[in-house]
Write a structure and sequence with these properties.
The chain is mostly beta strands.
Length: about 300
Amino acid sequence: MFLRDGLLVVLLWFGVPAPSSATETAISCSGQAVQGGLLFCTAAPGGTLVVSGSKGEALREVRVADDGLATIGVRRTEALELLITDKDGWAAPVTIPLEKRNDPFRTIEGLDCDKVDARTPEQKAHAGRSWVKKQDAFGTFHTGQGARAGFIRPSDGPPSSPFGPARKYIGIGKDGEPCESTSVHRGYDIAIPVGTEIVAPAGGTVTLGDPDLYYEGGTVFLDHGDGLVSVFLHMSQIDVAAGDVVLAGDRLGASGNTGRTTGPHLHWAVKWRNSTSDDRGKDFYIDPALLLELEPLN
């Protein structure tokens, strides 16, 4: 176990070794048994695993890849015990207890309301166009190594805001009217000056490179495979375009202070998308800081 940003993280191995033949069916899971973490589970290739909560409710089904690996994201608010079963019933279920997160609640005051939410018709139209671009990118899937090879930091610099806290933003508009908004911080912020190099934390295919999304500013989406996509926000320079294939450490662009931000930094988020489902509303973000501590499989 280790301590990361005040969160106790336990790295555990559950189950038994992966099956050596089709007749020796088993489920074996490794990874980070913590809310917001990522699990690797091996099972019969091409099958489907069912993830259930502590009360037996089915949460999601995840396809097992042809190499026998299923990459399973864990929600920030996941039940503290997961049951993973083979949908076809050939393997014994595996029970995984999770470490609970203790994310704080923060209040940020004195903001310009234009940085809190879209207010004018022009701003709302810009935000709407940006939303469509993001949804299209999140709905695009590519094959790749996913998290098998591990992750590196996308830029050097100290962390300035962790994944997980709920934050209330309070501001005053140019008309003197107050505004407020509450949301969960779903990324990992790195405090770096404008112009600092941003690199790919793992290999993948670029699905979005846009210099001017409303909230996000300069943005890159990088699909690593296995449903995992990295999102980089507030960039001042974009050096890649949709369709580009990059390796870990390749340059994506430079950090900035674009979009709805209060200072220069990189916001790096990672979303786990379930390729077994067409419902993108059930995808969710996981903790990038935990991915940096994940043991590679190869």
